[in-house]
């Protein structure tokens, strides 16, 4: 951000003030160091407002045109990095307005007719959040597609499924990856749903009570691509539900990414050895030469804490505010901006990393074969032979204890040994005691069988848009 070096400009609201603002107060109250990045939205909002005022005759066509051209030249100035942001002008809104007046003279002073910074900032922030959502949706879809491709590739890869982080039952890696994709797709739906409530125009609410000028809010909404205009001016200038919903969706999304990261970290530990992360996504240790650390997933996991904090910050920011606008709301920027930046960067890095993981299929399969992971399959087998499930469960439990005492797996027990626990056991039992048999048996929609994984990938691709 380029900062102004010039001496103090006049405050745009300075009329009723005799003394200058305390310099500490100026620093304490300014927001331009953060909200300058709202400039594309502020300019778009101001252009729409000026055009609307021209259309309704509040401004002459010449004034309106001059303002629009002036704002467009300021846009180019900012894009070129030539705009000087001045904290003495408080925020992005007054920086741009002051520059406009310096550029085009009196017409610039008419821009603020029938509006307030209160409806202006609410409009800007909604435009920011709307664009943020649209960007995140594109990223979510790309990452989701990457997961589908990987799930298809690993549809037959067998690994242990866990509960309580204990080996539970064999699953396919493809199925596990599709579970991640489900989380991601709910995040996408949540953002799309929130977008409907984001995309409502507050402009026209002015400070809190509306304006005495004959404005055309539907026209402003149309120019800015808003689907509706806000119903109540008091609510519109004070409401930050849309920001809370956005941060809520971001926080939950980060919770998901954090959970995946945790798994990537575990799986890539030599103690698991399920996957190898690509070198370009890892870092080393300054002291231990052998180390290859999963810093990227660790940082995603770590950053999720900040995004969860932002949601809390916004909820607390709003919780005791009386209607309508209060300056407290200026504090909404950091949570919203940082939530977006963090989610965007995390999605970006995982979209590169996840498809590049190398899967050690033999290690995964060996792990899935241990831990008596097919015990449930044996119980199910006995049920099909006529035993009530509870009796089958008990019989298999005793067989497991017997095998564990001899350092054997269930499949290593002879038929005679198995029959000791359940007489109904027959020679065909062994095909159910392999991880392959176990996953293949779960062949209903939503199950882990390789064919079901492939079908789920196809379904997901079909309903992708
Ligand atoms: N910088 C302020 C914000 O972010 C803009 C609105 C200020 N309005 C006011 N009346 N002081 O909320």
Summarize the topology.
Blueprint: H1 23-29, H2 32-35, H3 39-55, H4 61-79, H5 92-104, H6 106-109, H7 117-153, E1 158-163, E2 166-172, H8 173-198, E3 200-201, H9 217-224, E4 228-229, H10 233-238, H11 241-268, E5 275-276, H12 295-318, H13 333-353, E6 358-359, H14 361-369, H15 375-384, H16 389-405, H17 415-421, H18 435-441, H19 450-462
Parallel strand pairs: 3-4
Antiparallel strand pairs: 1-2, 5-6
Helix pairs in contact: 3-4, 3-7, 3-9, 4-5, 7-8, 7-13, 7-19, 8-11, 11-12, 11-13, 12-13, 15-16
The structure holds arginine (ARG).
Task: For this entry, give a set of tags.
Fumarase C, Chain B, domain 1; binds arginine; 5% strand; two-stranded parallel ribbon; elongated; 465 residues; single chain; mainly alpha
Report what the structure shows:
The chain has 465 residues and is mainly α. It has two domains: 100 residues, Fumarase/aspartase (N-terminal domain) (Fumarase C, Chain B, domain 1), CATH 1.10.275; 248 residues, Fumarase/aspartase (Central domain) (Fumarase C, Chain A, domain 2), CATH 1.20.200.10. Helices cover 60% and strands 5% of the residues. It has 19 helices and six strands. The protein has a two-stranded antiparallel sheet with strand order 1-2. The protein has a two-stranded parallel sheet with strand order 3-4. Strands 5-6 form a two-stranded antiparallel sheet. Strand 3, helix 9 and strand 4 form a beta-alpha-beta unit. Helix 4 packs across helix 5 and helix 8 packs antiparallel against helix 11. The longest helix is centred in the N-terminal third of the chain and has 37 residues. The model has no long low-confidence stretch (mean pLDDT 96). The chain binds arginine. The site of arginine (ARG) has 9 residues, from helix 7.
């Amino acid at each position: 951000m380029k900062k102004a070096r010039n001496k103090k400009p006049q405050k745009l609201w300075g009329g009723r003030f005799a003394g200058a603002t305390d310099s500490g107060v100026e620093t304490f109250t300014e927001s331009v160091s953060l909200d300058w990045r709202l400039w594309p939205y502020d300019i778009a909002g101001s252009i729409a407002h000026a055009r609307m005022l021209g259309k309704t005759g509040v401004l002459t066509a010449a004034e309106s045109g001059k303002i629009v051209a002036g704002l467009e030249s300021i846009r180019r100035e900012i894009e070129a990095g030539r705009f000087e942001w001045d904290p003495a002008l408080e925020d992005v809104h007054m920086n741009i307005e002051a520059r406009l007046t310096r550029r085009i003279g009196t017409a610039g002073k008419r821009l603020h007719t029938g509006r307030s910074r209160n409806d202006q900032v609410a409009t800007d922030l909604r435009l920011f959040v709307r664009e943020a959502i649209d960007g995140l949706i594109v990223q979510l879809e790309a990452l989701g597609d990457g997961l589908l491709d990987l799930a298809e590739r690993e549809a037959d890869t067998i690994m242990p499924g866990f509960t309580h982080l204990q080996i539970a039952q064999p699953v396919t890696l493809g199925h596990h990856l599709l579970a991640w994709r489900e989380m991601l797709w709910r995040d996408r739906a949540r953002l799309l749903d929130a977008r409907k409530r984001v995309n409502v125009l507050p402009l026209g609410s002015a400070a809190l009570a509306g304006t005495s000028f004959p404005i055309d809010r539907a026209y402003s909404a149309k120019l800015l691509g808003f689907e509706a205009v806000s119903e109540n001016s008091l609510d519109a200038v004070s409401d930050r539900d849309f920001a809370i919903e956005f941060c809520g969706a971001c926080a939950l999304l980060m919770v998901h990414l954090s959970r995946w990261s945790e798994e990537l970290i575990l799986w890539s530990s030599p103690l698991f050895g399920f996957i190898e992360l690509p070198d370009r996504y890892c870092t080393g240790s300054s002291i231990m030469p052998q180390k290859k650390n999963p810093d990227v997933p660790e940082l995603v996991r770590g950053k999720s804490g900040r995004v969860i904090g932002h949601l809390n910050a916004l909820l607390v920011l709003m919780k005791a505010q009386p209607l309508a606008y209060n300056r407290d709301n200026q504090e909404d920027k950091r949570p919203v901006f940082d939530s977006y930046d963090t989610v965007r960067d995390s999605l970006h890095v995982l979209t590169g990393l996840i498809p590049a993981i190398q899967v050690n299929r033999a290690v995964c399969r060996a792990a899935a074969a241990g831990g008596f992971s097919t015990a449930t399959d044996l119980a199910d087998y006995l049920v099909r032979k006529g035993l009530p499930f509870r009796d089958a469960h008990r019989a298999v439990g005793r067989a497991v204890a017997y095998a564990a005492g001899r350092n054997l797996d269930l499949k290593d027990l002879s038929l005679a040994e198995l029959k000791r626990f359940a007489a109904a056991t027959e020679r065909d039992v062994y095909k159910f005691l392999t991880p392959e048999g176990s996953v293949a048996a779960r062949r209903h929609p939503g199950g882990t069988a390789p064919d079901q994984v492939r079908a789920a990938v196809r379904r997901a691709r079909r309903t992708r848009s």
